[in-house]
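S.,

As promised, the manganese (II) ion run. Input:
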Amino acid sequence: MYQHSLFISDLHLSPQHTDITRHLFTFLQQQARDAQCLYILGDLFDYWIGDDDSAPWLSSIKQQFKELTRYGTTVYIMPGNRDFLLGTSFAASTNCHLLADPTVIQLYEKTILLKHGDDLCTDDLSHQKFRSYTHNTRLQHYFLALPLCTRHWIAKRIRHASRQRQYKQPIADINPQAITQALQQHKADLLIHGHTHKPLITEHRCVLGTWESQPYVLRFDQNGAQQIGIN
Ligand SMILES: [Mn+2]
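Predicted complex:
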């Protein structure tokens, strides 16, 4: 079998949506095992309060990722705007590799820029302001020092406010100029990102879909990118 890579993002896993976790496990136990690499481009989790969260529902997820790596698939995880606190302990416990946003990879002689995508929504000023707080390492340090229950409480409050905001105003789209600039800056042929929940495959841009309605998997091989279903 020739080699290929798979890309997913925006699963928004949570203990409430067990159907998405079930789809993920099916995928990790089947198609993902045949791939050379699996790239998760942000928002695997609906929110992440720190790698020390030992909630029982997380242990089977970690186990499934670890199991996949035993089959020889290399798994890369990029934190998104929801799970930006995913860290090295999570990576170690799952045998996955953390990916910085942005990351540039080479696949089949193409230079591919990987991003979550939220920082390309430059028209959404309130998100960019919020992002500057969440990426402040000192604030992250203070947050992670709080007791788990307090962190849960804060994360739920933020999620609630964000959902109410999205109800009034859907997730902003990427600024087209920001895409061109990012491609030029990284001398990349193709940008693959998630976040907007508006799947798209074009010559220079692939947008991954959210798993909230149904699983979305992008396969990339020597023939280029295509969406595949899960069994
Ligand atoms: Mn996102």
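The CA atoms of residues 47 and 85 lie 9 Å apart. The radius of gyration is 17 Å.

- D.
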